[in-house]
Amino acid sequence: MHTTAQKLNGSEIFFECLRREKVDTIFGYPGGALLKVYETLYDVTDIKHILVRHEQGATHMAEGYARATGKPGVVLVTSGPGATNTVTGITNAYMDSSPMVVFTGQVPSSLIGNDAFQEADIVGITRPITKHNFLVKDVRDLATTIRKAFFLATNGRPGPVLVDMPKDILNAECDFIWPDSVDIRGFKPTITCHANQIEKAAKKIAAAKRPLLYIGGGVISSNASKELTLLAKALNIPVTMTLQGLGAFPASEPLNMGMLGMHGTYWANQAVNKCDLLIAVGARFDDRVTGKVETFAPQAYKIHNDIDPTNVDKNIKVDLPVVGDSKDFLAQLIKALPEKSENHDSWLAEIDSWRKQCPLTFTVEDDSLKTEFVISRVSEETEGNAVVVTDVGQHQMWTSQYYHFNNPRSIITSGGLGTMGYGLPAAIGAAFGVQDRPVVLFCGDGGFMMNIQEIVTAVHYKVPIKIFLLNNSFLGMVRQWQELFHQEKYSFTDLDESNPDFLKVVEAFGCKGMRAENPAQAEAAIKEALAYNEGPVFVEFRVIKKDMVFPMVPAGGSISDMLLERLNPKTMV
Amino acid sequence: MKHLISVLVENKFGTLNRVASMFSARGFNLQSISIGETEDPEISRMTIVTRGDDQIVSQVLKQLNRLIDTIKVTDLTHQPHVERELLLMTLKLSKATQHEIFELINVFKGKVVDIKQKSITIEVIGSPDKINTTIDIFRPYGIRELARSGAVAIHRGE
Ligand SMILES: Cc1ncc(C[n+]2csc(CCOP(=O)(O)OP(=O)(O)O)c2C)c(N)n1
Ligand SMILES: [Mg+2]
To answer: ACT domain: from which residue to which, for each copy (chain B) (predicted)?
Structure first.
């Protein structure tokens, strides 16, 4: 124990702990239970507090920050409604394994359980959506609890941790003692992969004729892109990635197969279908990836590396589980590989023929605009090097198809939960963490309305994000399913009549805005927006209404059921 | 099949809730759960009875391990162990039945813990199967109330 015999109150201890954890930015919103904390914050100069406009915004910002930087995102909100407003953001971080620490104010200890003003049992509410959570009952436990919270959020499989701090504890004084180390006896994640398993995996890889690397977000969070690239190139193994894995392997490499799964590329899905060895790294065989599990990679011997043992054999039975950190897995594999392995030229040629058979394409017309075109152009203009944030819907899937990610930590998107309203705040958070690359947001007209208030935050702090609104006047992704599977009954998805004038809205918030209705205007607007760095800039792209994302594996279907085009061509615009 | 799982957990508020809500959130079967302090006041032992095929039970064990407040998870099913449950049961008592009831209490090695004019409360300790049988046998005599502790279990010593 390291003692600095210094008497501090709970609020001062709180900030002292953040300093020790090297926190430079927190996203927060004040309230009654946090008055003491904000009193202390008044004189804090070394930690930047970002005032959001809704607590949900704070959580998504913290997650955007975390995913762009790899550091935990920190949220500070008051009790009751402040705390309950964080629930969606916490769940989102939980599903996508993002490190985050959420601090909530709580009513004074003596009132807990009395239905006090602005009391909510946030520890009870968030138990199933946090990696762990704490209620601090004694100011002397505060520092240790905060230390544990950061430790848990960032070690093993990352995730959100919540610390509930009653008002009396934030006022009470005690000696500040920062524990030098943390020991949580119930938390001992396996980091190093078992050597025997690695050896078995290496043998299988060396012997495989049609191997495929299936890469998930675990490779991003363990910072293992370098190892992945080395391994894939050394053995000539094609790489397909999940939505969260995109960028782990550079899109510019010929071995890149793009995304697999529901809206994955035809050739990546065919490769899954035909491979004889599937090496899943930091991925969890999500249902949006596998479709019908019985027909997923039917010919393949399956190796599965994940840091979370519960992911192994959860959705799909694998042949060789390797529990441990993905970086360690890949690094050990590289060392263990035999000198000689199979040559995969004919396998790669086969994949290439699928690519030629069904490439990702779209048509361009002079007088109308498509989301695919906008995303492709932004990808080219930024050379695949931007930090790209999306909301949820069709534009999100087109981003995965048409933005060519060349770097890790470059796609920030709500994958597991599919939270509309995630994009704008996540982009703002990402921009607080990353200054050397442009931060681009692709957002739909539906989701944009869900956290639109955060434009004010971006304007106030002059956050130089590029807000690209793909306005198709529809809840496009739902419309797509209605067209394909619900007899074209477009029930409550047409927003044409009710959408506001987005340009006027953002301008009223003080944001620079533009509008583009055809490819020529879009070209110009993209260039202008990318060059503008004084603060946020907004472009509304008025895209066609009835565009569809293909290919598509219908939910629960096999990859062989993949739809490549509209079922009913007359529904085209 | 039925599995008997012993879990050492941190003796903190909310731990039981974390475990129970994990079972319901993931749709696992939870037949019984019991908890009590161990020789170390900071640690409690939970005994859980669940049902499922191998794949499900393996998930149950891993999900239990994943909780931060669990210290050690052991599936006792295929290991030498002792499993006991306590039954407290109040039965109707009458002149006509009392003789048979007392005989049955002896057969089940039960104990009388309370006796009134028209009722008798007994305790029986045994495996959950024995408790099930006990209840079935006594049912015809008229059960007023019963309470079961759920199974508790422990490794057999070496
Ligand atoms: C909070 C929330 N509510 C509802 C949904 C269901 N949903 C998924 S995509 C979608 C449509 C999104 O429309 P828009 O934001 O315009 O994007 P587009 O699909 O048109 O690109 C909806 C309603 C969701 N994912 N999240
Ligand atoms: Mg839309």
So the answer is: 4-78
